[in-house]
Amino acid sequence: MWMYVLKRLAQGVITVWFIATATFFAMHSVPGDPLLNERAMSESIRANLEARYGLDQPLMTQYVIYLGNLSRGDFGISFTQENRQVNDIIREHFPISAILGVLAVVFAAAGGVLWGALTALYRNRLPDYIIMFLVILGISVPSFVIAALSQLALVNLNTLLGSTVLPVAGWGTVRHMLVPSLVLGLGTMAYLTRLMRSSMLEIISSDYIRTAKAKGVPPARIFTRHQLRNAILPVITVLGPSIAAITTGGFVVELVFAIPGLGRFFVQAVQQLDYTVIMGTTVFYGAFLVFMVIVVDVLYGFIDPRVRLE
Amino acid sequence: MDKPGDGNSSVFTEQEFTHSAGRQLALFACYALLAIAVLLYLLSLAARSTGSNGVASGAIDIVNNSISITLQDEPPQLDASRASDAVSGTVLFHVMEGLLSYGPSGELVPGVAQRWELRADGATFWLRENARWSDGEPVTAHDFVFSWRRAVDPATASDYSFILYSVKNAELVNSGELPLSYLGVNARDDYTLEVEFERPTPFFDKLVAFATYYPMREDFLNSTNGRYGADADMMLYNGPYMITSWVHNASMRWEKNPFYWNENRGFLDAINVDYMTSDVNAKLNLFKDRQIADTTLSAPMLPSAMEQRWHIDRFMEGTVFFLELNHRAERLTGNYHFRKALQLAQDPAELVYRALKEASYLPAPSLFPEFIRGVDDLFRKEYPPEPHRMDVAAAREHLEMARQELGLQEFPPLVLLTGDSPISMVAAEYYQALYRKNLGLEIRIDAQIFKQRLAKMDVGDFDIVLAGWGPDYDDALTFGDLFTSWNLNNHGRYNNPQMDELVRTAQESLDPRIRMEAFAGIQQMVKDDVVIIPMYERGYAFVADPRLKGFERRSIGTEMDYSYAYIDVPDE
Fold first, then answer.
1. Scanning every residue of chain B, which has its alpha carbon at the shortest distance from the alpha carbon of A162?
2. How far is B518 from B202, CA to CA, in rounded Å?
3. I need a labelling partner for A291 at 20 to 30 A (CA). Which of A190, B64, B266, B350 fits?
């Protein structure tokens, strides 16, 4: 068990190193650089800036310096927010994205499992049809539309009630978190509902359920022990990656609801070719994703005794 | 055979199973809700230690004499010597002041300097003695000398250091060839600043209102350990407001600077930047929810805004957009007749009103936007540009002449470089369709993200590029010198000694009339020689809370000016 975890962690480190290297060279091969500005600059101004950021060194030297800094956990200084360490940016803004993401995942997981089980239970009956219709909507309508619509709904709600019950945008209290996290989790919730439903249906018609029924196991027990518990496995498998996807994919929701999360740095850095922030966020998110996958694999062993961790 | 009763071992029907399982599911749902409630509580505790807006105070707070506003983005750089973007410019405008400043209607007014004198070889500024830093110390001429030297110090690596190049030796100091002390600026005493010019600069009074020219105090800068401008307490202010709190990417609070000298500026006790977002829909919703005092309206929002009887205003943001043509000899656009054909076959009014459908934009008649001042009045009134007439037949004649001159059977496709914003894509597609229809030319659209577009512009990898230019200072020269042979922003490498000559005159003459004549000459030459093809001047519609008065948006200095704003309390 512990050997397995260690082995996976070592593999993870190599994966992160690979991500860092690939991103580094891909980023530098893109035409343009972070110093370009709408105002063209003279040779001497440019030379001053290059010296300041170490861009006057050969690329391999920059890479070696970068890896050295990375191994010490130092991502450098942002090009666009010139007084801020990338470490500070991640430290200040990732917790916000994480809180939003965790909440969204909890909504998605709880909702997905419950709705999925419900639709399977009432398959081909009215609740099934209604929920599955909503699921299709949830999967196909992009989050920026849902975000904008729900924000508009909030404005109308507040106007109707005459005071700001739920804030339209911003961050800081539970009231700020509720709607954005629901919106953020909605797509995943819809996806998980469908996954849960199909996995439930597969199990319902399996032999051991019939055996359990024949043995006279009480319905509630069959449902929770034999059906839910087995059906939930595929959901857990995708949960790890989707935590990372939700946490990193919050850009649109963060933008619409003016939430100071890390998402906008992740996206804007690429547009601005902000080298240090691109590297910082990519490596950080990459490591995060790798870690989540490992956690899920380990978790698997606890939930499903058939899986042996070796 | 079914034998009912005996709960534990009975065989059950499908329906019983569903009921029982459904009950179980409902129970789980309750657990889940409970768990989520607990989680929400815990997370809200955690969120308190992260960047929070706290409790918003609402758009207009009459009791505390404060307002709430939004910023487009986190200000990237509040070190005035190094700032180069509009958001930082807006913040700095409210918390700092240069030798000169801008008045309520955008005119230049005395700032830290009480009076000044411009000569051919230099300038003298006499500073007011009651100008103070936010810690109560006086603002002196030494603070300007220190700040300007620092701005051209190679170690500072300011990308706007060029704006100081009018000052003697600035360029040589900036490239590290001369020590800082050779910069042509000196403090004769605490309140007299002497400037020597590199070359005559009759518009120097307009330059010193720019952020790079703001003062900075040496002892304070040294005390910040290289973190100047990084946080609210890492700055010293001499403007009407000072930043008292700054949660990165989330919020800011500007409070009235008690030491600011001008009683006719800074009427609000506090300005809360409660949100930092560039999303116009989010801003509109915040405005409707009475959380912010003003917002920009995009074209699709206008009808419903009018229905609500809001007082909608428009301002021209100052940027002119144009088709920049590549004048390098190997390009088709290097040929005069070819350019003339492109010019005659299009109409900016059609682009703005039929294609872009942006009610707040104006078709651009020339390189110089509306707000540029002439001798006594607006430049456009004194020297109206020749009106443009679309003439497809003449355009085709010019195209034929170009074909003969270039000795071509058929024109190869043109590369139209553009950004990836929706507006520029619409404009690019408009020109693509237009030139195919009117001239039979094929246009290949090359849409690039910001930095890559800039990189391609710099090396001249285009035939035509959708470009724009915004003003740095309140003088026609900020546009007028764009197409000189030495200007690095002349991406198409237009090279014409006559143009250079006109710009030299406009740069150096001390007589405003001669200067304006030169600008009129530049305006005519840009059109006659088709240096560029002007498209539109960008404007925005906006709406402000009716209780907020004196709030202006302008083309120059700062986009949003709250420094003269006050709350008009309606009669009880």
1. B289
2. 14
3. A190
Chain B residue numbers with beta carbons less than 8 Å from the beta carbon of A272 are 450-451
Which residues does chain B have within 8 Å of residue A169's beta carbon, measured at their own beta carbons? 275, 277, 282, 285-286, 291
Is A169's CB within 8 Å of B25's CB? no
Residues whose CB is less than 8 angstroms from the CB of residue A160 and which lie 6 or more positions away in sequence, other chains included: none
- Give how far the C-alpha of residue A308 lies from the chain's centroid of Cα atoms, to the nearest Å: 28
| pLDDT given for residue B4 in this prediction | 44
Q: Which two tokens stand for residue B528?
A: 């006659």
Rounded to the nearest 10 degrees, the angle between the axes of helix A229-248 and helix A86-121 is 150
Backbone φ and ψ for B432, nearest 5 degrees, come out as: -60, -45
The Cα–Cα gap between B173 and B194 comes to 18
Instruction: Give yes or no for a contact between B544 and B293, defined as CB atoms under 8 angstroms apart.
Output: yes
Main-chain phi, psi angles of B124, to 5 degrees: -125, 135
Helix (H, G, I), strand (E, B) or coil at B249: coil
Phi, psi values for residue B145, rounded to 5°? -55, -45
**B136 — alpha (psi -120 to 50), left (phi > 0) or beta?**
left
Half-sphere exposure of residue B148: CA atoms within 13 angstroms, side-chain side: 32
Q: DSSP string covering A147-159, please?
A: HHHHHHHHHHHHH
Q: Which residues pair with B544 in a beta bridge?
A: B294
Residue with tokens 């790079």: B212
Residue B214 backbone phi and psi in degrees, to 5: -65, 155
pTM value is: 0.87
* Token output for B551: 């709030």
User: How far apart, in whole angstroms, are the C-alpha atoms of residue A305 and residue B166?
Assistant: 78
Element (H, E) at B312: strand B312-325
8 Å CB contact of B36 and A167? no
Structure tokens at B202: 């009759």
3-state secondary structure B541-563: EEEECCCEECCEECCCCCCEECC
Which amino acid, residue A280?
G
Mean pLDDT per 10-residue interval, chain B, length 572 residues = 44 79 88 88 73 64 92 90 90 96 91 94 96 95 97 90 93 93 95 95 93 96 90 94 92 95 94 90 91 91 90 91 95 95 95 90 94 92 94 96 93 93 92 95 92 89 94 92 91 94 92 95 96 95 93 88 90 56
In angstroms, the CA B126 to CA A63 distance is 52
